[in-house]
User: Fold this.
Amino acid sequence: MHRKCFALIIFLLLTAGWTCAQQPANDPIGEALFPPELVMQHQQAIGLTDPQKEFLKTELRKMQLRFTELQWQLSDELEKMVALVKQETLDEPAVLAQLDKVLNAEREIKRLQFSLLIHIRNNLTPEQRARLSELKRGK
Assistant:
């Protein structure tokens, strides 16, 4: 039962975050940023240089390490949340304080993801960004 409840909370939190992260059709922020998969998929089309490729690999490695740490932290905080909400009578201040810890961990993950997108964009030339924008739009 504990695993099912824990899995359900993780699912709800991640789907809520994913749903909120869905970008509207006209998203000026999303249009200005490029996910690493897009850059890797079109590296020849945009003329990605060897130093740029190495930069991207290094950034992805650094971010993945931090992301893994944050996932562990989030999992730990969620497990504590499960223990709190399974009690017969809920201690509202304690549950809300734990919720803040869960939300802070999620915030750090999203911040890390956004930081990676900024690093990628700053490493591309204006011409590469323009070409990626075209490719994103399907041109």
In short: The chain has six helices and no strands. The chain has a mean pLDDT of 87. The two ends are 50 Å apart (CA to CA).
